[in-house]
Amino acid sequence: MAAMTISKVHEMPSGLSKAHTNLLSIQFGYVNSMALRCAIQIGIPDLIHSNDSSSMSLSELAASIPIPETKSPHLYRLMRLLVHLGIFALDENSGTAEPKYILTPASKLLTKNHDNKGVIPFSKMVLDPALVNPLFHLGDWIKMEGSLPFELCHGGNMWAVAAQKPDLNKDFNAAMESDSQLLMSFIVKHSPQLFHGLKLLIDVGGGTGGCARTIAKAFPDLNVKVLDLPQLAADFPKDDGVQFIVGDMFKHIPSTDAILLKNILHDWNDEECVQILKNCKKAVPSKEEGGKVIIMEVVVNSQLKDPEHTQVEYEADVLLMTLTSGWQREEKEWRKIFKDAAFEEYKITPGFGVRSVIELYH
Ligand SMILES: C[S@@+](CC[C@H](N)C(=O)[O-])C[C@H]1O[C@@H](n2cnc3c(N)ncnc32)[C@H](O)[C@@H]1O
């Protein structure tokens, strides 16, 4: 048997070690994202979920994916990282010789038959080269006037490029729809008062109607419509009672009791947001007459400060800066655009994951 000796440990000064490890961890952050992408791509969450015991050993996983025998040790390395990141866990009580992997709350969200259709389409989109590649242009972009990293990479803005690339358009809409279903199922259950007393709600920039359908199902007496760009019309389901209106929110929004803007204003700069909000103001009646605009967005460092939320908010902000002219806004920045669009009153309710609900009145 080979003998093992441990030589004297030469410890780096703790400050240097900590600083270097911190730097390495940030540098390797993309490896975490890509390991997650790989697990989704080869269907690991669904395989574990659909197995009878809701757990799987490495050899069972290798046989089910399937992968060549020579790749088994590499699958182990992938799973070791993902267990460390909390995407999967090892079942302490399996009682089997070979350890079994189980799902964690994070990977349960990545199964296809999750209650809310899961978040796979959103993860796929965020980790798609079309959205990742523009980040390589940040350094050039920040030193020059105009354009966006996305435009430097793809030659046009997101909506124009999506209009020309049906696959990207489809993936983007599916990503938004899965995010909408997850958030909106929670909101209709826990904050139904948001919709009480309304007869007509227009989901402006409502995509393929994920939010609209969830609201219409929860409140059958509420007429819910979606206004979005023409390229969304083909993918919009025709027969589910939610009407699609082709329109441009920068030009005109039809009259309605209330407007929903979910994940819209974060795509635009302040001047553009004020223009959209002024059109909203023209479309909805005053507070006394029951009108309102419902915004679902991040309020950076909202009352529920949580270090993990803050990190996600800042990361999403830099991604928005890469893809669009938009921002993740702090409350004082929201207040400014509301004031510039001549809205008099707003109420922020945090606590919907990283998102808050803002009710806006004039
Ligand atoms: C980030 S997505 C949000 C979709 C949806 N609200 C959600 O949260 O799932 C932005 C949406 O705004 C739409 N959009 C972009 N420009 C628009 C315009 N000028 N008028 C109406 N909709 C627009 C896009 O087509 C897209 O569906």
Automatic annotation (TrEMBL):
Q: Which UniProt keywords apply?
A: Methyltransferase, S-adenosyl-L-methionine, Transferase
Among Pfam families, the record links this protein to: Dimerisation, Methyltransf_2
Q: Which GO terms describe its biological process?
A: methylation
Repressor as UniProt keyword: no
Q: Which residues form the O-methyltransferase dimerisation domain?
A: 26-112
Q: Where is the active site?
A: H266 (proton acceptor)
Report whether S-adenosyl-L-methionine shows up as a keyword of the record: yes
GO MF, one term, reads:
O-methyltransferase activity
Please indicate which superkingdom the organism of origin belongs to.
Answer: Eukaryota
The UniProt record lists the O-methyltransferase C-terminal domain at 137-343
Q: Where is the signal peptide?
A: none
Q: Which PANTHER family match?
A: O-METHYLTRANSFERASE
Please identify the protein, giving its name as recorded.
COMTL2
